[in-house]
Write a structure and sequence with these properties.
single chain, about 375 residues, alpha/beta, Isopropylmalate Dehydrogenase, 2 domains, 12 helices, about 40% helix, about 15% strand, globular, binds nicotinamide-adenine-dinucleotide, binds 3-isopropylmalic acid, binds manganese (II) ion, cytoplasm, branched-chain amino acid biosynthesis, metal-binding, IsoCit/isopropylmalate_DH_CS
């Protein structure tokens, strides 16, 4: 069986980490005799530079024809002067999520056993480990709510965004969180701001309704501000964190860093037909782009998620995850995972990709 994957590497470290993910995919294809065809398309700043717009028709069409999308990252200082809707994030990534109605975003963050020291958590806390799945609503809330814009002039000028959620939108993402919890430690923590926001009051109501269909799963509600701090105090108490679009954005960077680096957190974004876009949770990292030092693991693990969710190649997905775990256990680390005085031992983006690809080939 032959699969089609649309590859959108994007900007900044996107192409650097994508090259390593492709390397690892090649190793896994050989090992599992998979037939995957890749088509590369410009997106984001790269597309602005080459085509004059962040999401060209040809890119969208290529994505529509593919079985799945492997996405790098978009954005950077070069395009920040453009009108907001013409910039890479709002002109390409959000429209892609909207176009395919990729409402379900899942970001799994686990503290690697033996590498607790990579975490910025206090050692008695990191010693207990943690394993959190952030389930983030991705096509609604304040990101997409209308009206959105600016009006007026001078000191009277104002800007506005609208946070808006329907019962249907909350219900479908809540169901996914509960289903995911069933396959894990059977606990859902729903993150909201129900002491202030009308959207969060509705969110809680619907989540309570959905919970009744899952009597075997424990449910707790937590305010977003408290959640960010409890994650630092007792991350091991969380299993599935169910979040609206904006709160999930915030929580996902926090859980990424608790594992040691933004460069470790992968993600899958699915629609109700199971079509998916796979991307690192982090961005184009302009501060380190072009230096060959970015951690490619989030991109590599996103490729593993693609194999699992879109191509249903579980063994191949697992082989990649095992190879990544091996690299980390072997102490094969990119610079941001190391203390400043040990950076001379840091591996480059390319060395990391090579090592993981080799581990895929050698595994039995
Ligand atoms: P960022 O995630 O790009 O970077 C935040 C910090 O994490 C930086 O210090 C960066 O060096 C580090 N980091 C991120 N990925 C890393 C990796 N793989 N290895 C090592 N370190 C890594 O967030 P930002 O700086 O706020 O945003 C930069 C640009 O990326 C902006 O234009 C933003 O809009 C965009 N962005 C894009 C996406 C996406 O395309 N999915 C996601 C987030 C941010
Ligand atoms: C993410 C990113 C995006 C988001 C930006 C780049 C639009 O931060 O995927 O987490 O806010 O969703
Ligand atoms: Mn984010």
């Amino acid at each position: 069986m032959s699969y089609q994957v649309a590859v959108l590497a994007g900007d900044g470290i996107g192409p650097e980490v994508m090259a390593e993910a492709r390397k690892v995919l090649k190793a896994v294809e050989e090992r599992f005799s998979l037939d995957i065809e890749y088509s590369e398309y410009d997106v984001g700043g790269a597309a602005i530079d080459h085509h004059g717009c962040p999401l060209p028709e040809s890119t969208l069409k290529g994505c529509e024809e593919a079985d799945a999308i492997l996405f790098g990252s978009v954005g950077g200082p070069k395009w920040e002067h453009l009108p907001p809707n013409d910039q890479p994030e709002r002109g390409a990534l959000l429209p892609l999520r909207g176009h395919f109605e990729l409402f379900c975003n899942m970001r799994p963050a686990k503290l690697h056993v033996g590498l607790e020291h990579m975490s910025p958590l206090r050692s008695d806390i990191s010693a207990q480990g943690f394993d959190v799945l952030c389930v983030r609503e991705l096509t609604g809330g304040i990101y997409f709510g209308k009206p959105k814009g600016r009006q007026g002039e001078g000191e009277q000028e104002e800007a506005f965004d609208t946070m808006r959620y329907s019962r249907r939108e909350v219900r479908r993402i809540a169901k996914i969180a509960f289903e995911a919890a069933r396959g894990r430690r059977k606990k859902v923590t729903s993150v909201d701001k129900a002491n202030v926001l009308a959207c969060s009051v509705l969110w809680r109501e619907v989540v309570e309704e959905v919970a009744k269909e899952f009597p075997d799963v424990a449910l707790e509600h937590i305010y977003i501000d408290n959640a960010t701090m409890q994650l630092l105090r007792r991350p091991f108490d969380f299993d599935v964190m169910l979040c609206s679009n904006l709160f999930g954005d915030i929580i996902s960077d926090e859980i990424a860093m608790l594992t040691g680096s933004m460069g470790l957190l992968s993600s899958v974004s699915l629609n109700s037909d199971g079509f998916g876009l796979y991307e690192p949770a982090g961005g184009s990292a302009p501060d380190i782009a072009g230096q060959g030092i970015a951690n490619p693991i989030a991109q590599i693990l996103s490729a593993a998620l693609l194999l699992r969710h879109s191509l249903k190649e579980e063994a191949a997905a697992k082989a990649i995850e095992d190879a990544v775990a091996k690299a980390l256990s072997d102490g094969y680390l990119t610079g941001e995972l190391l203390p400043a005085d040990q950076r001379d031992k840091a591996k480059s983006t390319r060395e990391m990709g090579d090592y993981i690809a080799q581990a895929v080939r050698e595994a039995n």
